[in-house]
Design goal:
By secondary structure, the protein is mostly helical. The chain has helices at residues 2-12, 16-37, 46-57, 70-103, 105-120, 127-135, 145-155, 161-171, 181-188, 193-197, 201-217, and strands at 142-143, 179-180.
Length: 227
């Protein structure tokens, strides 16, 4: 289940760079204030002030360097309060992401297990549309639970009845009572989804055609050099 932690950090990774950048700016600003407030006998250089800032922000408190002046003590005290409040933000983001992943762990684990089992048996994303056509007895382009169950048992995925039901609900996110091949491929073979269906290419072509039409309809004025 270690990949649940990886999934949580992957979700939180989008917001962390901005927070780390702001944290770096805050550390540099407080380091400069400490360097200006403290006498040179105590803080001899800016890197030493930065060391005191980082140790204080991370609540480590080695005690090898500490402020001795009244202004420096005020700056470090304000740094303690500010850093504690700020560090609660990324910790809360990671915790919230892990909570969402943990609540969804049943779906993630069953999808991952199915994906690994199908790859072991040599199934590819291109095989899924053909399998859906075989077991789609109603010819509706999607499988209900009974057809989905028959297909998984024929594919020898190794899931029990409860696992099949969880997997079906994981794919049927719109609660329509049926699963189509695109929903199946998107969950089991996400890397091959766009290669197989190519969704988005038609939209890109239409966008380029519209852009070309706009360029033809509106002439761009060119500046003329005065004689």
């Amino acid at each position: 289940k270690f990949h649940l932690v990886q999934e949580a950090f992957r979700e939180a990774l989008e917001a962390l760079p901005v927070l780390l950048y702001a944290l770096s700016l805050m550390a540099l600003a407080f380091a400069a204030l400490i360097y200006l407030s403290e006498p040179r006998e105590n803080i001899a250089s800016l890197p030493q002030a930065l060391w005191l800032t980082l140790v204080t922000m991370m609540t480590v408190g080695y005690g090898d360097v500490s402020p001795v002046s009244t202004p420096g003590s005020f700056v470090v005290s304000f740094l303690m309060i500010t850093s504690c409040l700020y560090l609660a933000i990324p910790i809360g983001i990671v915790g919230s992401a892990f909570n969402r992943v943990w609540e969804d762990r049943g779906r993630l684990l069953i999808v991952r297990r199915t994906s690994e089992r199908l790859r072991q048996w040599g199934y590819r994303a291109a095989d899924i549309p053909e399998l859906f056509k075989i077991f789609d007895t109603r010819q509706r382009g999607e499988l209900n639970y009974r057809e989905f169950r028959r297909m998984l048992f024929a594919m020898k995925v190794g899931l029990q009845e409860e696992g099949v039901h969880q997997l079906f609900n994981a794919f049927d996110q719109d609660a329509s009572g049926a699963v189509d091949e695109k929903e199946f491929v998107q969950q089991i073979f996400p890397q091959s989804y766009f290669d197989l269906y190519g969704e988005g290419e038609e939209d890109d072509e239409e966008f380029m055609e519209a852009l070309s039409s706009m360029a033809m309809c509106h002439e761009i004025p060119h500046s003329s050099n005065p004689h």
